[in-house]
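The following record pairs a protein chain with its ligand, pyridoxal-5'-phosphate.
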Amino acid sequence: MSTSDVPVGALDTGSGAPIGATAPAFATGAPSLTSLITKLANEFFSEGAVRQSAMSLGPLATPQALSSPVSESVLGPSVATGASALGLQTPAVFSGIPSLGVVGGDPMSSALALPPDFQSLLQLVPQRDGQAPDVAQAPNGSPTPDAAPTPDAAWASDAARAPDAARAPDAARAPDAARAPDAARAPDAARAPDAARAPDAARAPDADVGLPTSFTELDTFSFRPEVVPQTGTGAAGRPFDPYAVRRDFPILSTRVHGRPLIWFDNAATTQKPRAVIERLKYFYENENSNIHRAAHALAARATDAYEGAREKVRRFLNAPSAKNIVFVRGTTEGINLIAQSWGRRHVGADDEIVISWLEHHANIVPWQQLCSATGARLRVAPVDDTGQVKLDEFERLMGPRTKIVSFSQVSNALGTVTPAHEMVKIAHRYGAKVLVDGAQAVSHMGVDLQALGCDFYVFSGHKVFGPTGIGAVYGTSEILEHMPPWQGGGNMIADVTFEKTKYQDAPARFEAGTGNIADAVGLGAAIDYVESIGMENISRHEHDLLVYATAELARVPGLHVIGTAREKAGVVSFILDGFRTEDVGAALDREGIAVRSGHHCAQPILRRFGLESTVRASFAPYNTCEDVDALTAALLKLEGNSGGQRS
Ligand SMILES: Cc1ncc(COP(=O)(O)O)c(C=O)c1O
């Protein structure tokens, strides 16, 4: 066996029947996007009749939305005026993502697609009584000395938070008139001719790809007038405006192949706002020093900035104390830290580690390595055909030997929002510790660790508008206190003799050597930035985009969305009949649209759907409906140009 082979303890893929509806882990807010609402309202009013649509309007997910008044300033003149003139409230409420069909409905079919090396990892545990065979699931601060240097607080509220005056005068910040006028914002005619909008008959026949044939749910356009909640303001008090957010990101005004950049690769990494870029510059120009150790002024400034960032991470996650926050390079390093430090101490032969089929490789491989070193077994909770974790199957995997459960709050490949609260509770009932991988969650939804109740949480700064090479591990005090360091060196020690070393308490114990000081400070600035926009606004906007994109992409013949869970964050993963995903990615790139095509470092979940790769568009607060329109138009063009000459 080569050294790259990872011998794993018996890997259990779970089994059983689908579960019923699970309690939503993520209360998806009602849409508030002016253009989405405008489009839907205008289409409805102009067509004047119920029409078939791939989108079904359901009840609001947020109760408060039911009682909020429609606001013209929120909706924009055309909708608010049009709707209220007719005595109607605005039709902009969606409760879930329609099921557009899933490839590989039969899990066994994807089992056949597993390559031999992966099959060899599937050393299935014996079947338990009354359970379907496991194989059925296996398809596959210190003082600031000078008044002059800008302390973090002042920075955050002034320069880094880019006061309006310093950034863009209000008038320039996309007042309705200055923004793209409604007509210019992709009116139907300017977007895609009706004929090109994939009437049902023009869609790829289901039989071609083995999709479910029933689209009954999708064939009904039910109009349920609801009230759109007032769009909130961020901490900085500015109303949410994706066009203003967009202007905060210098790279978004760059051109690619002569076209304006549309960044839909946010799940891989997010772009950085000016506030973060300038904070890094400020650090290197005014504060740069190693931290904690020297008596000079710059050491104090750098230490202040670094520890200030730790406090910002604490606040961002609602952790009880900054001592619960350990800086690491990112999610991957965080999971490895936990697996190696906590895992080596607490996981032994025949113990069990439970993950889910949705996991990123970063939440698979470190556990395989731990299993290999300790003789523990890796067990994998299955997902249903929408890409949601089957909670009852998950619970069935729990037992007295389950030592730790580790799962993503949001799947990077499909966008599924897992029922994290329920999963934490279930795991705790069996005495297991829980690690939640928040890499994809932190930029899409508010995280409250005290409410979530997990034992560990990890995330990467670059996924939430911060720099690369910095992230954080949260651990409860009880656990961190008793966890051994995983690396030794400077910074993490209290005293060293040749005979014995005394370690620092957490978090310093886990931060050996010189850390990524500047980027930690940059992460703090990113958190300030997110808070200035308001996480609720971000979640709502991305939800709107997801609903809009799901409906719009359904107009592209032969396009199939992979991952149709009811609870999803801003990710649309898809395949296009007859096209290789890399060719789709390259064609979109030529239009200036950056998407990810590939396996998204999550091969097991794609193979669960019988696939090796998908195209993934993932959203951020700077994306707009026009970006989605451009994506749809580019895909329609690609499809239309193929003339049957597909690869
Ligand atoms: C869900 C999930 N977990 C872990 C990771 C790994 O993150 P990083 O590469 O920043 O360590 C990613 C990155 O895409 C991810 O999406």
